[in-house]
Design goal:
Elements (H helix, E strand, L loop, with lengths): L2 H12 L6 H13 L3 H7 L7 H15 L4 H5 L1 E4 L2 E4 L12 H10 L6 E5 L5 H9 L4 E6 L2 H13 L5 E5 L12 E6 L10 H4 L14 H4 L1 H10 L3 E10 L5 H10 L2 E8 L5 E8 L1
Parallel strand pairs: 3-4, 3-6, 4-5, 6-7
Antiparallel strand pairs: 1-2, 7-9, 8-9
């Protein structure tokens, strides 16, 4: 079958369900054929698809039509200008989380630091920071063994030796007496009845334990704020990503548990999406 014929069919099929049909087709075809997007277009007029290639493309198109995120179909996602392996075991790294990375880099000096990444998932945050700050040491924690396997592969991909992986539930994976310069997290903060879970089909494919939190999405945020006090050195800082309507609640939790110098940071849309608090 001619590539151009399959291409036209795919665009038509994807247009029924995807607002980004053309881009989706580019990414999926390039992925299957092992081409760049530029190479794909140069070969469209006269290249032939093998039967296995045609079948693979049809399978991917059907999965995309059902709402499965393109990142899971490709097995990768770009974050902080880096490429990370992603699977349904981990949350897909999102552009808004780059605000968390940026604020950590802007706040902490480049000298040797000990950092904890709670709920590391794909390890995108830790890897981005570790590449930017070679002197820093990281402990990256996740409750999911499947997520830690993905994180380990991403860490190996960038040949990093400054990130230690641990399995556990938030700060319970840390040892008594350990102290850190900063703890950071992008925890679950979506309420179970949030309308986005029904209207955004892609969320149905991501791990629920990385998205949904009890108490209207605030439970894990409060737990982390409470637990982190034991492991932050004097003057240590806790950085949290949260929902765009949760900044006030997060500030109240910081005050409740004795933090000070509480700050909120806005994303490019003007929403308060990251907060920090200093301990002691």
């Amino acid at each position: 079958m001619l590539l151009i014929s399959s291409w036209r069919w795919a665009i038509k099929e994807l247009n029924r369900t995807s607002p980004s049909a053309y881009l989706d087709a580019e990414l999926l075809f390039a992925h299957v054929l092992g081409l760049t997007r530029a190479q794909l277009h140069s070969q469209l007029p006269d290249r032939l698809l093998t039967t296995p290639q045609k079948k693979h493309i049809q399978q991917l198109i059907a999965r995309r039509q059902s709402g499965e995120p393109i990142a899971y179909l490709l097995g990768r996602q770009e974050f902080w200008s880096l490429v990370f392996e992603v699977t349904p075991e981990v949350l897909i790294p999102r552009p808004e989380t780059e605000l968390l990375v940026q604020q950590v880099l802007d706040t902490l000096s480049t000298e040797r630091r000990k950092i904890v990444d709670l709920g590391t998932g794909s390890a995108a945050i830790s890897v981005a920071l570790a590449l930017a700050r070679p002197a820093w040491q990281f402990v990256a924690i996740d409750y999911s063994s499947g997520a830690l396997q993905v994180a380990e592969r991403n860490i190996r991909r960038y040949h990093l030796h400054t990130i230690e992986l641990r399995q556990g539930d938030w700060c319970q994976a840390l040892l008594v007496g350990e102290k850190f310069d900063a703890i950071l997290s992008n925890p679950p903060y979506i309420a179970a009845d949030d309308s986005h879970l029904q209207t955004e089909c892609a969320l149905a494919y991501e791990p629920k334990n990385a998205l949904i939190s009890e108490k209207n999405g605030l439970n894990d945020l409060e737990i982390i704020i409470q637990q982190s006090r034991e492991y932050l050195r004097e003057g240590g800082i806790l950085f949290l990503e949260h929902g765009y309507q949760q900044a006030t609640f997060v500030k109240e939790f910081f005050l409740k548990y004795g933090y000070h110098q509480i700050k909120n940071y806005k994303d490019l849309a003007g929403h308060q999406r990251v907060s920090s608090g200093k301990w002691n």
